[in-house]
């Protein structure tokens, strides 16, 4: 998250009047915000119940009447359940710098996003707990109990907990305006279409969406393009989800490249050597032939396996920077997180593993503390939050696990409702565990709550996925090795949309922003500016690599 903190000033979401039109007011110093009323149920717009979407805009420097003005690009950061407001506060300026240009074909864009249904400052919120403190304590308890394979009874504990939360989140006693059944991707795609329409100079015309979606945001984009293929002007889908697998509940193939990304950690570490990679220091257990890369990588793999096996039996404890224990599940979670952003996190992973090997848990404890802080907003989302404890309602934030689970379960349209633990284990848990040796267990409980998630969206998406009559071809973007959205899925989804192209970025990590490539930025800029797609088979090299990123001075961007 960004270390910068935007000051709220006099802005408050609660004091900003919602409307059926976009009435933007200044917020967070350099941004504009609005609260937009949309139907709770897009399949019955005569119903008076509404959702109030929290919208944020980073305006471009040119006037909307200027011929260089290119319109608004809507961003979805993924999750599902991540806050679009936070995304623009954290990365909006970076995104704007990528898409805007100052050459003879210059275009300037407003960057817009929103908190999706149930998320952040969009109302009503998903209600599973009486307050945010209860939600926070629940999350801490789940983490303490560990991953499905961390102990003899861990799977049973997780199953019971997920059934409890699935039932609580879909409690029908909460009232008719509860968001629970209405936060599926189909509903959000209709919100997206409505927002795109209102952002146009003539809001009476059909929407012509300009969109950049990351991770789950690609699933939202694929759903939108399948529903409204003639209402797309530009669409970049970055870190591509297999929509066929998502809607059927079969995601084990999403992890086909995961262990290859882990292998890249060992390879980069060995090539960088010590001290660039702290885990390359084998002084305690000297490697016989350190010049043999295959042998060196196998040796690093064994050392990580030994660390995990030791922690599974006996957790480490530390009093610094605060009292903490380090478990097998903690290190698996760290490993999973590092695979998303290798340039930033592989060096941290290496340092922590080196410390743990020496029975020093302080660096891992510091990482756990930092991870907890990241669940709080990096920008005060409401003026009341500045004088409140972080678990007060004024400090609502996105990325709560129940949001992710709820959207995923609703998109399955009750395909797993009332499934037993034994059936779940055979159909989902075992295939996911087998799909990735290193981190399959971190995803194995993903669909567990769906056995008791009783809500069903009134307008669930039933397909078909894809379109042959797109108004504009889609640009799909994927890293060569992505831990959760493999390159093969980008090609599979591209094949369903006539004229679309896959741009491959030669890097590891999740989504193009996991690395830095002037080539990738050039093609994305050109596409938003003119609609020009890169030639089929384009491979973009990157300027930075794990353990070497600090030596790279970023050059001026296109």
CATH superfamily of the largest domain: Alpha/Beta hydrolase fold, catalytic domain
- Mean pLDDT, to the nearest integer, reads 89
Number of strands: 12
CATH class of the largest domain: Alpha Beta
CATH architecture annotation name of the largest domain? 3-Layer(aba) Sandwich
Could you say which structural class the secondary elements and strand pairing correspond to?
Answer: alpha/beta
The topology string of helices and strands comes to EEEEHEHHHEHEHHHEEHHHHHEHEHE
pLDDT < 50 stretches: 1-7, 551-558
Query: How many H/I helical runs?
Result: 15
Structurally, the number of domains stands at 3
Overall radius of gyration: 23 Å
| Strand arrangement across the biggest beta sheet | 1-2-3-5-4-6-7-10-11-12
Kindly state the percentage of residues in helix: 25-40%
CATH topology of the largest domain: Rossmann fold
Protein name: Peptidase S33 tripeptidyl aminopeptidase-like C-terminal domain-containing protein
Domain Peptidase S33 tripeptidyl aminopeptidase-like C-terminal: 439-540
Domain AB hydrolase-1: 73-240
Keywords: Hydrolase
SSE layout:
Blueprint: E1 25-27, E2 31-39, E3 50-58, E4 69-76, H1 84-99, E5 108-115, H2 132-145, H3 154-169, H4 185-199, E6 209-214, H5 216-227, E7 232-238, H6 243-248, H7 258-272, H8 293-313, E8 316-318, E9 324-326, H9 328-340, H10 342-357, H11 362-374, H12 401-411, H13 421-435, E10 475-481, H14 487-494, E11 501-508, H15 518-530, E12 539-540
Parallel strand pairs: 4-5, 4-6, 6-7, 7-10, 10-11, 11-12
Antiparallel strand pairs: 1-2, 2-3, 3-5, 8-9
């Amino acid at each position: 998250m960004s270390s910068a903190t935007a000051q709220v000033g006099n802005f408050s979401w609660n004091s900003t009047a919602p409307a059926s039109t976009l009435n933007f007011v200044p917020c967070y110093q350099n941004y504009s915000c609005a609260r937009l009323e949309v139907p709770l149920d897009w399949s019955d717009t005569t119903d008076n119940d509404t959702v109030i979407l929290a919208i944020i805009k980073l305006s471009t420097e040119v006037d909307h009447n200027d011929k260089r003005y290119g319109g608004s690009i809507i961003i979805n950061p993924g999750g599902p359940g991540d806050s679009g407001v936070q995304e623009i506060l954290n990365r909006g300026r970076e995104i704007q710098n990528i898409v805007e240009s100052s050459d003879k074909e210059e275009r300037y864009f407003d960057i817009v996003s929103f908190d999706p249904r149930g998320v952040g400052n969009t109302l009503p919120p998903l209600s599973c707990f009486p307050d945010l403190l209860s939600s926070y304590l629940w999350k801490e308890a789940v983490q303490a109990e560990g991953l499905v394979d961390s102990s003899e009874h861990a799977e049973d504990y997780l199953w019971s907990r997920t059934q409890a939360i699935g039932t609580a989140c879909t409690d029908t006693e909460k009232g008719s305006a509860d968001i629970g059944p209405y936060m599926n991707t189909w509903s959000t795609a209709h919100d997206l279409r409505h927002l795109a329409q209102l952002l146009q100079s003539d809001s009476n015309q059909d929407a012509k969406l300009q969109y950049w979606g990351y991770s789950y945001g690609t699933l939202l984009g694929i759903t939108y393009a399948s529903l409204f293929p003639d209402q797309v002007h530009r669409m970049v889908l970055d870190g591509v989800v297999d929509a066929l697998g998502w809607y059927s509940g079969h995601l084990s193939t999403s992890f086909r490249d995961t262990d290859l990304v882990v292998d890249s950690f060992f390879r980069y570490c060995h090539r960088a050597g010590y001290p660039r990679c702290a885990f390359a220091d084998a002084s305690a257990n000297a490697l016989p032939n350190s010049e043999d890369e295959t042998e060196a990588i196998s040796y690093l793999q064994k050392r990580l396996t030994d660390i995990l096996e030791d922690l599974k039996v006996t957790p480490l404890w530390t009093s610094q920077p605060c009292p903490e224990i380090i478990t097998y599940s903690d290190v698996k979670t760290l490993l999973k997180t590092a695979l998303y952003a290798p340039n930033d996190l592989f060096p941290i992973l290496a340092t922590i593993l080196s410390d743990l090997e020496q029975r020093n848990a302080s660096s891992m404890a510091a990482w756990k503390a930092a991870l907890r802080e990241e669940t709080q907003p990096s920008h005060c989302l409401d003026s009341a939050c500045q004088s409140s404890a972080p678990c007060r309602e004024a400090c609502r934030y996105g990325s709560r696990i129940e949001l992710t689970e709820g959207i995923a379960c609703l998109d399955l349209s009750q395909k797993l409702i009332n499934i037993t633990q034994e059936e779940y284990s055979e159909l989902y848990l075992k295939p996911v565990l087998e799909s990735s040796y290193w981190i399959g267990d971190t995803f194995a409980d993903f669909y567990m709550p769906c056995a008791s998630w009783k809500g069903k969206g009134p307008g669930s998406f039933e397909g078909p996925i894809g379109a042959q009559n797109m108004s504009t071809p889609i640009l799909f973007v994927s890293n060569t090795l992505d831990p959760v959205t493999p390159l093969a899925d980008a090609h599979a989804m591209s094949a369903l949309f006539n004229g679309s192209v896959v741009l491959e970025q030669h890097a590891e990590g999740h989504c193009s922003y996991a690395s830095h490539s002037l080539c990738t930025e050039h093609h994305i800029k050109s596409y938003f500016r003119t609609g020009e797609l890169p030639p089929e088979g384009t491979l973009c090299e990157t300027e930075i690599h794990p353990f070497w990123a600090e030596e790279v001075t970023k050059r001026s961007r296109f």
